[in-house]
Design a protein that fits this description.
- It is a single chain.
- With 121 residues, the protein is mainly beta.
- It has no helices and eleven strands.
- It has strands spanning 3-7, 10-12, 18-25, 30-39, 46-51, 57-59, 67-72, 77-82, 91-100, 108-111, 115-119.
- The strands form two sheets. Strands 2, 4, 5, 6, 9, 10 and 11 form a seven-stranded mixed beta sheet that branches.
Length: 121
């Protein structure tokens, strides 16, 4: 019932930059934490960065200092600015949003469809 639409993936060279965007839609929902996860072939999905509704952020050690997560609460949109990209950043990146219908309702984690990020020379 919460739809997530991602954009911004693609091909970048090592040392380059990409900016991912993800917009959540669905009337009557309260969106809490949002985040970005990634999964490389043969690997488990891992957390890249999360951001709470109060703008508290967390990052995987592998991306600290290079990636920045931000959000626009009015638009229910989360962004991931990726700088100094490395080949090991290559993965499918998934947007997530924790949403609930009303106070007291269970909160579910919703997922985007995933967008491919490839870092190669």
């Amino acid at each position: 019932q919460v739809q997530l639409v991602e954009s911004g993936g693609g091909l970048a060279q090592p040392g380059g930059s990409l900016r991912l965007s993800c917009a959540a839609s669905g009337s009557g929902f309260s969106i809490n934490a949002m985040g970005w996860y990634r999964q490389a072939p043969g690997n488990q999905r891992e957390m890249v960065a999360t951001i709470s509704s109060s703008l508290t952020t967390n990052y995987a050690d592998s991306v600290k200092g290079r990636f920045t997560i931000s959000r626009d609460n009015a638009k229910n949109t989360v962004y991931l600015q990726m700088n100094s990209l490395k080949p090991e950043d290559t993965a499918v990146y998934y947007c997530s949003a924790d949403g609930r219908r009303f106070s007291g309702a269970p909160t579910y984690k919703y997922w985007g469809q995933g967008t491919q990020v490839t870092v190669s020379s």
